[in-house]
Amino acid sequence: MVSFTLNNRQVSLDADPGTPLLWAIRDHVGLTGTKYGCGAGLCGACTIHVDGVAQRSCQLDVGSVAGKTVVTIEGLSPNSSHPLQQAWIVEEVPQCGYCQSGQIMKAAELLAKNPKPSRADIITHMDGNICRCGTYHRIIAAIERASRGA
Amino acid sequence: MNTIDTDLSRRGVLAGLGGMAFCIAVGNDGVRLMSQAQANTLANMPVTPWVRIAPDGRITILSAGAEMGQGSMTSLPLIVAEELDADWSKVAIEWTPADAKVYGYKDPFGTENLMWIVGSRAVQLYFTQLRTAGAQVRKVLIANAAQKWGVDGASLRTEPSVVINPANGQRLTYGEIAAFGTIPATLPAVDPKELKDRKDFRLIGKSVPRRDTPLKVNGTAQYAIDVKLPGMVYASTLHSPVHNAQAGIWDPGKQDQSAAAPASWNDAEIKAMKGVIGIVKLPTGLAVVADHFETAKAGRDALKVTWGKAKAAGFSSDKALEDYVRIHADPNAQAVKLEEKGDVKAAFAGAAKTYHAEFRSDYGYHAQMEPLNAVVRISDAGDKAEVWEGSQAPDESRKAVAKALGLKDEQVDFHQCYMGGGFGRRSLGDYAAECALIAKEVRRPVKLIWTREEDIAQGMFRPQSFQCLEAATDASGKVTGWKHCVVGDGEFLLITGIKIPYYGVPNQYIERRGVSHGIKLKHWRAVGHVFNTFAIESFVDQMAVDQGVDPIEFRFERMGATPKARKVFEALAQMSDYKAKRPDGRAIGISITERSGSLGAGAVEISLDRATGKIRVHKVWAAIDGGVIVQPAAAKANVESAIIYGLSSILHERVTIKDGAVEQSNFHDYNVMRMSDLPEEMNVRFVEADTRPTGLGEIGNPFIAGAISNALYRLTGKRIRHLPFTPERVLETLKA
Fold first, then answer.
1. Strands B507-514 and B446-449, how do they pair?
2. Which end of chain B is more exposed for a tag (fewer CB within 10 A), N or C?
3. What does the alpha-carbon distance between residue B551 and residue B579 come to, in Å, rounded to a whole number?
4. What pLDDT digit, counting tens, does each position of A4-62 carry?
5. Domains in chain A and their CATH numbers?
6. What does the pLDDT average to over B106-117?
């Protein structure tokens, strides 16, 4: 049994502590906004926050987050109200959309520690997250928009 | 659960069933709209509601636009809504069922109906049919209002979702009409002249937001990988590392099932693993089934298998490329003629000068972000199956599942899901058919997920190629003779984009020389255009340089560019100011490309790190003639996406095969473009055109290779002739 806080809710899972956190969240809990892309920490589609730090959930055992606070895209805001989510809509960022949960979670970490990032800061921070549809320029525009509070 | 509306509740849509329902059916003239009564008179004609108008004004329009990020899910119903003159805020969208007889378009290369959202087809092939369907429904609504008011329908007009009598200002909303209206047994005909004038469009050309966007910022968009059914178990497959394919597109019906089949494996060991439910033998692989995906994958990773011998055993992609050169040089090699115009022999015999160049390209992988997956549930009696998949061709997927299970197509229900990328890979249903075989054997609903490693190892690739081009010019430098030979596997995949209809070279001979390796190949965002356009446009540039003529001028004056080609080049020249001096260490290159009826001219500005061989693309321009643009914002996003896809494939991506097996396994060795390689600027312009819409999903891709290689020549005096332009290859080119 592994217990942790997930999106402001206490969860206790009857899962092997070695279960990748990604699959624990997706299949054991049933929150599917966090995506499987590579299973090897290479693409960022599974990015979530653990105690406020963006992590690749495919590379963490669920046992390692016992007692910690985990936030997924579903917990970032109620009703898509986070400034990044609003900016993502205004800039029409998503195409296939599959990587976007991870992109938004990674970007949310950036704005939490650096509310006014430069373009270079954004690129350095976001470079690990692949978007195969090539929406990178819109991701940058959306992060800049959110940081302006627009 | 097919409802994909964002504004309207599921309950509201269901309530809409109380209103008017229009149907479509297929006649000799293709898809047409018909009334429920009329449809019902046709024995065995499958009918399904297409447009429903509820008394509260809600309008449900079904979409055949499988959604992989290109926006067709929204664009297709919007075309119906335009002619229906619907209030878009009251429109909900649902997926159509996977029935091509009812919801397909007529195959432009055949006689059957297809639902394949491939080759940038959705808007261009559905456009007229959907406009007509919308106009017919509008006519019925007007007729009902006219009857109620006792006036001539011709005197009435509509505003979004309202019929108005201009004589007295009377109004009836579409919902109000639906409450009392009737649908005639025969729906009114619509003459093409009755369709809206372009200036009257309220939705087409207006950049209406895509309906899927809000679902894609909060994790609620449902991909097949997210589907969960009661009692569902998970499967992870391991396939023969050596592909098992025949020439052309992969077809499960054509495979030799003894080849590449698993012969023996550590069965007891895997079955003893905690959580493993069983192992299912598939035609070319094994599936480990377990209570959770991670358990199934652990079982899959622990498999030790002896495989049957497949055709591609021992295949080496590098060696094969050299074989292609020999095949080209062999006068007895079999060749398929693709184009013959004028008298090529005479053109070359009488040439003032001739040119010759060779090009090579490597295999490419789709690398869609969502690994291939499907969910299948079979009824207890075995007479009905349901499949959940994100598919570019739901009709094909349904067929593949039915075939695997020995059922009729009608016994399979297909549930469309969003696709985490498609790029041509998701149109066969091969993995859905595998999932069906597994579900049948374990008698439980199954979710099959290919690991990323499987997705690459079992990729269906853009074929590799060798190309030889020759040209003859007359005393004035005009190109009078043109020869192009492409050598490789993949039949029709190899030849897309090889013809040059945008140029007026009078004498042409274009051919393909085929081989067959047993490597799986597939459509891939413009596929053959990528390497063919690269070769063509590099070669044209080579001649322009040799003659000391401006590259666009050369295309106009010496390649005989068509008026349409001139138009996109002129727009490009204006946008990019390509003659202006570039900053130190930078150069610009240009190229033209055609795809799916659209024509585009593109340019890139690059710099080069001469120590590492890394090319950096700073700016990209594209001027495109895509006819009338239905959704400008989505179209622009589509072109930008294809530009990035092109840059990624040209600068980074390479599949190599050694000893019959793919050497790359994940994103550490199959490199796709990341944000740090993003150009500082991308400029996309659609030139003004009054012609029907043409394909826009791929047009941004094929010009990239030629434009970069031409820019590299201008920067370094060296011409790179082998895709992709990896840093190592650029260094080799600089040394040569």
1. unpaired
2. C
3. 10
4. 999 999 999 999 999 999 999 999 999 999 999 999 999 999 999 999 999 999 999 99
5. 2-76 (3.10.20.30), 78-148 (1.10.150.120)
6. 91
Q: Is the pLDDT of residue B470 over 60?
A: yes
Inform me whether the C-beta atom of residue B212 falls under 8 Å from chain A C-beta atoms: yes
| B669 and A CB contact within 8 Å | no
For residues A142 and B583, what is the distance between their CA atoms, to the nearest angstrom? 29
- A45, B369: Cβ pair inside 8 Å? yes
Cα–Cα dist B136/B420, whole Å: 35
β-pair partners for A71: A49
Burial of B158 (C-beta count, 10 Å sphere; 0-12/13-18/19+) = middle
Measured between beta carbons, the chain B residues lying within 8 angstroms of A129 are 674-675
Residue in A26, A99, A137 nearest the CB of B369: A99
pLDDT in tens, B394-408: 999 999 999 999 999
DSSP state of B157: E
Q: Hey, do B231-312+369-457 and B315-365+460-524 end up sharing a CATH topology, with the first three levels equal?
A: yes
Whether residue B672 and residue A130 make contact (CB cut-off 8 A), yes or no, is yes
Are B369 and A101 inside 8 Å of each other by CB?
no
Q: What ipTM, to 2 d.p.?
A: 0.98
What does the alpha-carbon distance between residue B571 and residue B295 come to, in Å, rounded to a whole number? 56
Cα separation, A97 vs B221, whole angstroms: 8
Q: Please, are residues A71 and A49 in contact by the beta-carbon 8 Å criterion?
A: yes
The CATH fold assigned to B10-194 is Aldehyde Oxidoreductase; domain 4 (3.30.365)
Please state which architecture CATH assigns to domain B548-736: 2-Layer Sandwich (3.30)
Query: What is the spatial distance between Cα B148 and Cα B532, in angstroms, rounded to a whole number?
Result: 61
Please give the pLDDT value at position B23: 54
Question: Distance from first CA to last CA of chain B, Å, rounded?
Answer: 60
- The helix (H) or strand (E) run that includes residue B590 is strand B586-595
Interacting residues of B250 by C-beta distance below 8 A, sequence separation 6+: B428, B430, B460, B520, B521, B522
* B59: phi then psi, degrees, rounded to nearest 5: -120, 125
Q: What is the pLDDT of residues B439-452, one digit of tens each?
A: 999 999 999 999 99
Task: Please say if the pLDDT value at position B211 is more than 60.
Answer: yes
Domain boundaries, chain B: 10-194, 231-312+369-457, 315-365+460-524, 548-736
Distance from CA of A68 to the nearest CA of B (A): 22
Chain B touched by A68 (CB under 8 Å): no
Residues B625, B629, B633, B635: what is their CA dihedral angle, to the nearest 10 degrees?
-60
Q: What is the pLDDT of residues B533-583, one digit of tens each?
A: 999 999 999 999 999 999 999 999 999 999 999 999 999 999 999 999 999
Domain B231-312+369-457 has CATH 1.10.10.10: no
**Confidence band of B245 (pLDDT split at 50, 70, 90):** confident
User: Position A100: which residue type?
Assistant: Q
* Strands of the sheet with B285-290, listed across from one edge: B276-282, B285-290, B233-239, B446-449, B373-378, B385-389, B412-416
In tens, the pLDDT along A61-106 reads: 999 999 999 999 999 999 999 999 999 999 999 999 999 999 999 9
With CA atoms as reference, the chain A residue closest to B417 would be A96
Could you say which of B69, B214, B371 has the minimum Cβ distance to residue A95?
A: B69
Q: Where do the H-state alpha helices sit in B261-415?
A: 267-271, 293-301, 317-329, 344-349, 394-405
Across the interface, which of A101, A129, A130 has its CB nearest the CB of B219? A101
Could you say which of A39, A77, A126 has the minimum Cβ distance to residue B452? Answer: A39
Q: What is the CATH number that goes with domain B315-365+460-524?
A: 3.30.365.10
This prediction's pTM: 0.94
Instruction: Report how far residue B643's alpha carbon sits from residue A135's, in angstroms, rounded to the nearest whole number.
Output: 11
Question: Alpha-carbon dihedral of residues B396, B401, B406, B412, nearest 10 degrees?
Answer: -90
